[in-house]
């Protein structure tokens, strides 16, 4: 107990930040795959795919991430699996990212103009070919800005993993604060590190969005441009 | 894997606690939404201001809040301020943090809505001799709100879900109740399932409630029959 804030404390927090980044990457990799499957299932013509995906999204989007974390944490323990906190944290982040990213991407797939589907159909492409060769490449362009923006949410929400005992940035801050009791300083620093991680992503997302909108706005203008 | 049988009886016997917790969640979210929406809208107006300092201050606030986790914001308000000599109860600290948080998101959403109002409309209103406040109210704010109504609804539901985080500073809302029940009954999985179901119901109720408010507030939409 006691003592002043020193370099070791800061280094400990930076190590925590590395785990925050790690957990974010795990969440984004796992959640990205799940979300992609959810997005495809949501636009599928097969009801057996569409319905479970819809129910999944409804359930996850109606439950706080913190509760999902507790359910994973205690659920895994209940199955008799004694796994480290990162597994519960990674699993719950994957579940969470899957639902939200899936919805974002579904919106992007559906915002590709209808005529593109029809044109692909006229070219005698099969449904999966249409999806892979025509729709998804265009949807990916539309999806980039909101996806980067969502990554900010993912990084921030990994802070909840501290509550189930995973030592990432927030938990590292709590541990430092428990030993030196300077909450304002410590949590401001933690906030500063989160800001340093998130702000570039926010900025990038905005840039991408402006560029995308620019491309979309130019087209009608060009049509009326004097020859 | 061990066999495990779900037992809800002990957990459900604690229903008065769950009702109290849900009520606390509803109070906290409603207050935070009302206050946060007000602050956010003012902030969105501030960001459009001609005074550089004001628009810069509003922009800084929005970026600072949107790029840091709510959990840390709650800690700064609760532990940070109390260590600086401002002792405030947990509920007040939670409310302040939630209001600041949702205010920043509302500001961005409202700004997008206000930017979508065509310049010609504002010029037309000015030509009709409307005062600045009238222009803002009739021509900018109300159509903007109408446009971003779905985004606001999603944001407010997210806020209600995020209020679960306030359990970490000891606010007796739904998640805190779940923690208490699970430590009393040793039925952790069941407690959190019950609470998850309550949250899902609350989020549906909230969506329904906000939809109904939209129907009443946006008279133009009702008259035109363009229901969202």
Commentary on this structure:
The complex is a heterodimer of chains A (227) and B (228). Chain A is mainly alpha-helical and 227 residues long. Chain A has a single domain, classed as MetI-like fold. In chain A, 81% of the residues lie in helices and 0% in strands. Chain A has eight helices and no strands. In chain A, helix 1 packs across helix 4, helix 1 (7-42) packs antiparallel against helix 7 and helix 2 (47-61) packs across helix 4 (85-110). The model of chain A is unreliable at 218-227 (pLDDT under 50). By secondary structure, chain B is mainly alpha-helical. Chain B has a single domain, classed as MetI-like fold, CATH 1.10.3720. In chain B, 79% of the residues lie in helices and 0% in strands. The longest helix of chain B has 33 residues, at 15-47. The radius of gyration of chain B is 21 Å and the shape is globular. The mean pLDDT of chain B is 90. The interface between A and B is large, with 42 and 40 residues.
Summarize the structure.
The complex is a heterodimer of chains A (227) and B (228). Chain A has 227 residues and is mostly helical.
Descriptors:
heterodimer, A: 227 residues, mainly alpha, MetI-like fold, 8 helices, disordered C terminus, B: 228 residues, 10 helices, globular
CATH domain class name of chain B: Mainly Alpha
**CATH level-4 homologous superfamily of chain B:** MetI-like
Rounded to an integer, what's the Rg of chain A over CA atoms?
22 Å
Question: So what's the oligomer here?
Answer: heterodimer
Give the CATH architecture of chain B: Orthogonal Bundle
Q: Please state the second-level CATH architecture of chain A.
A: Orthogonal Bundle
Largest interface: A-B, 42 and 40 residues
Distance between the termini of chain B: 48 Å
Write the layout of secondary structure elements.
The complex is a heterodimer of chains A (227) and B (228).
Chain A: H1 7-42, H2 47-61, H3 65-78, H4 85-110, H5 114-122, H6 127-157, H7 169-180, H8 183-223
Chain B: H1 9-12, H2 15-47, H3 52-66, H4 70-83, H5 90-115, H6 119-127, H7 132-162, H8 174-185, H9 188-217, H10 219-224
Helix pairs in contact in B: 2-3, 2-5, 2-8, 3-5, 4-5, 5-7, 6-7, 7-9, 8-9
């Amino acid at each position: 107990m006691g003592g002043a804030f020193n370099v070791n404390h800061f280094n400990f927090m930076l190590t925590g930040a590395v785990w925050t980044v790690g957990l974010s990457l795990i969440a984004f990799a796992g959640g990205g795959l799940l979300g992609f499957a959810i997005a495809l299932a949501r636009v599928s013509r097969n009801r057996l795919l569409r319905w479970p995906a819809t129910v999944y999204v409804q359930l996850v989007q109606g439950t706080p991430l913190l509760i999902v974390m507790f359910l994973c944490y205690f659920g895994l323990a209940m199955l008799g699996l004694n796994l480290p906190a990162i597994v519960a944290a990674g699993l719950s982040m994957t579940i969470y990212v899957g639902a939200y990213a899936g919805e974002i991407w579904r919106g992007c797939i559906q915002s590709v103009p209808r005529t593109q589907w029809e044109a692909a159909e006229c070219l005698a492409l099969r449904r999966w070919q249409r999806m892979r060769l025509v729709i998804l490449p265009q949807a990916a362009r539309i999806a980039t800005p909101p996806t980067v923006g969502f990554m900010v949410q993912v990084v921030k929400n990994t802070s909840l993993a501290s509550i189930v005992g995973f030592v990432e940035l927030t938990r590292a801050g709590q541990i430092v604060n428990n030993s030196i009791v300077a909450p304002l300083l410590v949590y401001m620093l933690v906030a500063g590190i989160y800001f340093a991680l998130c702000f570039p992503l926010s900025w990038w997302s905005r840039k991408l969005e402006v560029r995308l909108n620019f491309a979309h706005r130019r087209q009608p203008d060009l049509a009326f441009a004097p020859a | 894997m061990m066999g495990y049988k779900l037992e809800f009886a002990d957990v459900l016997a604690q229903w008065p606690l769950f009702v109290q917790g849900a009520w606390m969640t509803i109070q906290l979210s409603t207050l935070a939404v009302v206050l946060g929406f007000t602050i956010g809208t003012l902030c969105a107006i501030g960001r459009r201001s001609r005074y550089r300092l004001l628009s810069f201050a509003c922009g800084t606030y929005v970026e600072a809040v949107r790029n840091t986790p709510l959990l840390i914001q709650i800690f700064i308000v609760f532990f940070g301020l109390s260590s600086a000599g401002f002792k405030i109860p947990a509920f007040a600290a939670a409310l302040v943090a939630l209001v600041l948080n949702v205010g920043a998101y509302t500001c961005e959403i409202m700004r997008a809505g206000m930017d979508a109002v065509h310049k010609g409309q504002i010029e037309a209103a000015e030509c009709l001799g409307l005062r600045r406040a009238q222009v803002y109210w009739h021509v900018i704010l109300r159509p903007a709100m109408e446009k971003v109504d779905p985004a606001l609804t999603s944001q407010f539901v997210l806020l209600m879900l995020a209020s679960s985080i306030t359990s970490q500073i000891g606010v007796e809302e739904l998640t805190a109740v779940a923690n208490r029940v699970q430590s009393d009954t040793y039925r952790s999985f069941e407690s959190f399932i019950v609470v998850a179901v309550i949250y899902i119901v609350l989020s549906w109720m909230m969506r329904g409630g906000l939809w109904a408010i939209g129907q009443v507030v946006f008279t133009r939409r009702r008259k035109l029959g363009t229901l969202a």
